[in-house]
Please model this.
Amino acid sequence: MEEQVVQQYREAAEDGDPDAMNLLGWLFQQGEDRSEAEQWYRRAAEAGHAEGMFRFAGMLQERGETAEAERWSRQAADAGNVPAIGGVGYLLEERGDLSGALEWYRKGADRGDAAAMRWGGLLLEKSGRLDEAQEWLRRAADCTGMDQVMTQADAMMDLARLAVQRGDSAEAERLLRKGASTLAQADSVPDEKHGYALMAELLTLLASLLRERGESAEAEEFFRWAADNGHAPAIVQLGELLEEQERPAEAEEWHRRGAEAGHLRSTLLLAMLLMEQRRPAEAEPWLRQAAEAGAPPAMDFLGSLLEKRGDLAEAEQWYREAAEARIDHSMLRLAYLLEKRGALADALHWYRNSAATGNDWAMVAAGALAGRQGDLDEADQWYEQAAQAGNEHGMYLVANLRMNRGELEDAEMWFRRGSAAGNGTCMAMLGILLAQQGDVATGEQWCRRAVDAGVATAVTDMKAVLEAQHGPGA
Model:
């Protein structure tokens, strides 16, 4: 900020010039001296300066003084400040007065204010009135003027988002390219920092569309521009794109940049890449950072890492956090660790939760633990669910349980299904069951298949069962 310019405006402001007061507020706001900016905006507003009222209202709104912000916005609108009209609408929308908000947006739109058009369009979209929303947003996108250029680009981005939602990626791409071009060709923008952020967002969305259809070279170019300007979604997607292209060193560089900037997704991706590369010691601090920031996949990976090295108490802690966030692998591993240390009721609870998500091995484990605790009916239910889900071991267990209960027809059916799936133990048990029922020849055939499938003692076991029933030489 030029000290000489500031001094000139300060002298004029001290002499009572409201324009100078407002300009001083703007200069200090651009320099991020919000306290000094607010002081001069307040003085301009109290001197009756319409833009000063509007800008002062904006600062009040940012710190949550909405009632006072609305009072000054209304005064600014009454004094002829057009952006303040939409500002009143925005404050009404914030407090839930949607019909009142739309009325003020309409007033601002009728005066040519692009921001009011855009806010009105977004409100109509939230209300489900998509055709009207698109019409308002198109009006905002078609506005011209240096002070409207950023709202134009914002509106084009909103229209692109709606186009994606209805499956029109070509129209979305056209709008995003036009929005980026509009910004790039502008002689200046009211807020340069916001301008760069908006350009980064437009290019990231455009690059995402290009990435989806395989145009990775142009996508990478746009991601890089946005990532170099600190846009977190671009940093994440650039790293992912580089991984897809099997460029792990470059991917790691961008994941690390994002992680060091505090972006949670990048932190998680970096940790997972390091784990894939068998660099657990390097991965662990990033996993911890992501887990402590509340990322359930990081909790799960951290639990696995700790379990492998024998830190079972801490592994259980992280598995529990991930399990409570509905990570299925963590539910199963937590249940296993709990069962291992004898917390059987808690273990069964988590086996059941995991099984309820469709995990067939959790169904088997839930059945086994329920059976150990004497509840054979629950064991049978879980074994059958696992079998119905295609789990061969579940087929064997439900068949064996029903055979022991004397439900031989059901047992044979499940042994046959397990045998058809290639399960050697089911083949052996099917052979023994058939031999017990008098079909020794077929039983022996199944037992020999079981031997070929790796159950070495199947034929011997069948003969031992028959001899136990009928005596030697049976």
